[in-house]
Amino acid sequence: MSEHPHALEMLDLPRPAPGRLAPVARGVYRLCMPVAFAPGHVNVWAIEDQDADGPCWTLVDAGFPDDATRAHWLQALTGDLAGRPVRRILITHCHPDHFGLGDWLAQQTGGRIWMSLGEYLTAQAWFGDTPASAMDLMAAFFRQHGLPPAQTEAMQREGSRYRRTVGSLPTAMRRVLPGEVITIGEDAWEAIVGHGHSPEHLSFYRAHDPVLIAGDMLLPTISPNTPTLPFEPETDAVAHYLDSIERFRLLAAHTVVLPAHGDPYRGVGLRVDQLRLHHEKRLVQIASLCEVPTTAFELLPRLFKRELDSFQTRFAMGEVIAHLNHLWQTGGLRRLHDTDGVFRFTQP
């Protein structure tokens, strides 16, 4: 891992008021949509574009599906975005704070959704009644990692939170392939695929006058959740994520990074190093806590100091299981399948 003597270079750019645009790079503008949960906002982006009919907009991400965000979009569409039609809406990934308003925004603007097939089909699975998204599957998976029946039963009673939150999904989209180059205005933007946080996350990179719309892959102050999902129970999401962010080392050192949460910055290589170090420390910590056979659930209060509600427990369990899977598959821990059907992990 390379050594960097300095901290990230946070750019001295004003955070726009909700419903307003603020320039962040040539032809690229930021909209900051407040949300009622941590980290308190999500950034979406507008890029000046041009098609056969004249000037237009390409948007990146749609935001969380709540009334406040809808109101902020309507203000922007009749204000700072007015005068240019929205031709397309690029989606980084299917999580509700990024894709949740995709269908609504497409209907409001006439813009077409562009996204990866993996994210589109995952959204459809979570939204619909499919075996891979069944709450019974999640409950059984978490019970296998030590979550008590009372808590798994509460999750089952909640049903599909994704469907309740998102409300509607587009029935068609334009697929973006990993590595595809998209022309926006006069610039070429490369779609860079990432894994670990979501199935087929896309970031968008402009090499000329370098800008990276990073989505959730390179957040400046927090590490994105890297969960193991019930339909991939033994996947090493940590390795997938760390392998993915290595691709960003190839980008120009002075690239402006536009994250989905937090403020723009420079220092892409440093941020990759910081995120790798975060996971390395977490892996060492988890391994040290498994002197005796331990379940993922038993690790939660030792890793998370605040009390977790049912929804936060889902994220925390997925994250811890991913780190346990990584340690097990790389020889750092042994996995024991006890007679009660529960997986426990212990040092070799």
Estimate what percentage of residues fall within beta strands: 15-25%
Unreliable spans:
1-5
Share of helical residues: 25-40%
What's the overall geometry? globular
Largest sheet: 7 strands, mixed
> Total number of β-strand segments?
16
CA-CA gap between termini: 27 Å
Spatial order of the strands forming the largest sheet: 2-3-4-5-6-7-8
List the helices and strands in order.
EEEEEHEHHEHHHHEEEEEHEEHHHEE
Overall SS class: alpha/beta
Averaged pLDDT, please?
A: 95
| CA-atom Rg in angstroms | 21 Å
Number of helices: 11
Label this structure with key terms:
16 strands; globular; 348 residues; 7-stranded mixed beta sheet; disordered N terminus; 34% helix; alpha/beta; 5-stranded mixed beta sheet
Walk me through the structure.
- The protein is an alpha/beta fold.
- Helices cover 34% and strands 23% of the residues.
- It has 11 helices and 16 strands.
- It has a 7-stranded mixed sheet with strand order 2-3-4-5-6-7-8. It has a 5-stranded mixed sheet with strand order 9-10-11-12-13. It has a two-stranded antiparallel sheet with strand order 1-14.
- Helix 10 (296-303) packs across helix 11.
- The longest helix has 21 residues, at 268-288.
- It is globular and about 65 Å long.
- The two termini are 27 Å apart.
- The model is unreliable at 1-5 (pLDDT under 50).
